[in-house]
Amino acid sequence: MSAAIVRYRTIALALGIMGCGTVGSTDGLTPERPANRTGPFREVTGNEMGMRSCAVVDFQGLVDEPSATRADDGRTVLYLTREHGEVRSIARVALRAPAQQADDPADVLVPALDWEGTAVRSPHVVRDGAAWVMVYGTATGALGLARSTDGLAWTRHPTPLLTADPAQGEDTPLRAPSIARTPDGAWMLAYASAGAIWFARASRAEGPFTRVDGDPSTPRRDAVLGATGPTMSPDGGAPGFESGALDDPDLFIESTAIGRAIWRVYYTARSAPVAMDGGVAPEVTVGMAASFDGRTFTRFGVPVFRSRTDPTYAAPSVLAVDERRTLLYVGARCAVSRGRRGVRVGIAPGTDTVTPAP
Amino acid sequence: MTWVVGMAVFVAATTARANPLDMYGLGARSASLAGAVSADVGDTSAVYYNPAGLSRLRGLRVDLGYFWAAPRLDLNGRDAQVAPSHGLVGGIATPGRLFGLPFAVGVAIHLPDDRLSQIRAIPQSEARWELYGVRLQRLYLAAMLSISPVRWLRLGGGVAFMASTRGRVDIDGVISVTNQGETSLRHTVDVDLSSVRYAQLGAQVDFGRGVTAALAWRQQFGLDLTIDLALQGRIVAGPVNDPNSIVVPGSYTLASRTLSAWQPEQWTLGGAWVINPRWRVMADLTWARWSSYENPASALRTSLDVTVPPELSGSLRVPALPPTAPREAARFYDTLVPRVGAEFTAPVGRHAAHVRMGYAWDPSPVPEQPGLTSFIDSDRHLVTLGAGATLRRLGSVFDGALHVDVYAAMQILPTRDFAKASPVDPVGDIRAGGVVLSGGMTVGAQFE
């Protein structure tokens, strides 16, 4: 049995002075207030997705590594890796609100050149005025480029943009390229190799690209962003979320509210594997780092997107439409495809709608 | 523990600030002169501007009016939804003689008509117009007296009243995790509201030839909202009175202090010159000690003391308390605010018509916000325009003068950019600016 003793003094004064109280947001991100919209993102709910868990699935194969952009008609268009047996091609699919595919993924680029091998994959598509520019990875580890006037028919650049150079620290094949126009009009290419993210710069999208040294103070060429390593574990126990490897960079340059250029790189972050005897299994999350100058990047410090139930969220692509930031990524357990991997959707804090307007 | 954390989050975020008169003035005549009236105030608004002016009264004075202000303040191009301020304003003052010297007592009030006061919880990191909004939703009540020891000197002073809140919640008892019916908790809630007084002083000196100088002082004040929570008891697994039951004694305390309202110390030096019966001009220069302003977010202290029985030491882990967010120092600047005003009077028979205008430049005390806090503000250019009529000897019922004054004012806040030091700052760069329109009307009865 509980008893309560309540003693109020000067109740009348309380009513007069206190008036009314309003409890505001406790997450620091009240809608309509300025927010960097960098994350952490939240996963959209089944209700917001029309009772679906994935925006895109492919019943004929597997989809992976999405790149979101906006078509002239305002619709969101995804380019993604499509896997059929041994062959990987690049497919296109349009979305309609709320985050549902309008049609089945259709191939727009299949491997055809010798240096592409049996796969073209991990596309990243940006608009260059009226034109469409795509950079993509290949089975050989070379990075390619294609252009289009309508987003459907693509013309390849005949030679690779870059191939791996171990002397430049690129100890594994290059993969998952992302390209963006810098404030001074140049093109910056971000890509992954050896568990790190590297940059290369050119005056034209077709190159030639000059590799960027992430830390000019050292004699070797450094990555712009590398894994933090197990010693960076924040609590001295489990390894940090980006202690193992970084992959799938998505480079995104925009202006802040006061007109400063801000560079953001979203990436797949893998924790370092540790012994299983009491250790923690590797975790895959989405990380982010940002910079005002394109050279010195500051990490967000915590994943901008992670799941407690699916540790495979990866390959982020952020679509910016006005103030909305929509994160498209791949994850397993798409209910309609009986656990097949598909493209899923997250939204940034302060973003009030699920997906860009059609 | 969820409710404890929830309360901690709530308390940590509570914030609010001072009174509307600093921002919008009191009384239509004084507001229409941009508040540059410390040396030339003779109605009940002297209670706020310079209590020495009450001694100018030669009869009972009653003022009553309405005031309204509508901010349109933007953050990154969006309306920040800063709440308007509006309400009744009024005052009463009566002169007399004390030991043969002219003497007056006055009371003034600003009474918001939709809420008497408001406290709003905003995390320190959330961008907000720091000097607007909640700060201006507050009741103001002040009582002043004035005396004129010699013909050319008037002195005044008094106090304004606000209230602070102090609350304590104590919970003690036993929580049975196996038999809910044996749970017994005792709650004690103690809320104490005590008044806070801050002083105002002023002086006016007549130099002849229509020239008057003034000095006014307003004391700094802050209102605290203090909440303490103490939770003490035992968690029991098994019958409460069974010595074989597992008992985990523990306590949790939380102490929060929030600055719910604040006003800087202010010194005002003013002058007025009655050039001729038609024209008079006046100017004020106010120094506001904003450097004493402190971050209004809560200072929070928590502690958790749980004694784990030896038999559970291997399986029961005491959770670590979530760290409280560090409060960044506000680091506001002191400001120097010049105000000027002019009044033209045209006699119309035994009556008079007045046209007034004023300007003030109120530099923002808010520094750049590169870090955790996002206090937003910009310099204020205040432009005012007003008109009035003095109607004398309206009849046998009322032999005094009736003053009807109206005004409109515009605060222009130029666009100001706030750049964050970190590119991953959750709020990011902010561009802020806007205007605030205000207006009001006061009717005053001056009895002979």
Question: Overview of this structure, please?
Answer:
The complex is a heterodimer of chains A (358) and B (448). Chain A has 358 residues and is mostly beta strands. Chain A has a domain at 161-310: Tachylectin-2, Chain A (5 Propeller). Chain A is 2% helix and 43% strand. Chain A has one helix spanning 11-18, and strands at 3-8, 20-22, 42-43, 62-70, 76-84, 87-96, 100-101, 106-109, 120-128, 131-138, 143-148, 154-156, 175-181, 187-193, 196-202, 210-212, 225-226, 245-255, 261-270, 284-291, 298-299, 314-321, 324-334, 340-347. In chain A, strands 4, 5, 6, 7 and 8 form a 5-stranded antiparallel β-sheet that branches. The N and C termini of chain A lie far apart (59 Å). Chain B has one domain (2-446): Beta Barrel (Porin), CATH 2.40.160. By secondary structure, chain B is mainly beta. Chain B is 6% helix and 57% strand. Residues 1-17 of chain B have low confidence and may be disordered. The relative contact order of chain B is 0.19. Chain B is elongated and about 100 Å long. The termini of chain B are far apart. Chain B has a 14-stranded antiparallel beta barrel with strand order 2-4-5-8-9-10-11-14-15-17-18-20-21-22. In chain B, strands 1-6 form a two-stranded antiparallel sheet. Chain B has a two-stranded parallel sheet with strand order 7-19. Chains A and B meet through strand 1, helix 1, strand 2, strand 19 and strand 20 of A and helix 1, strand 6, strand 9 and strand 10 of B.
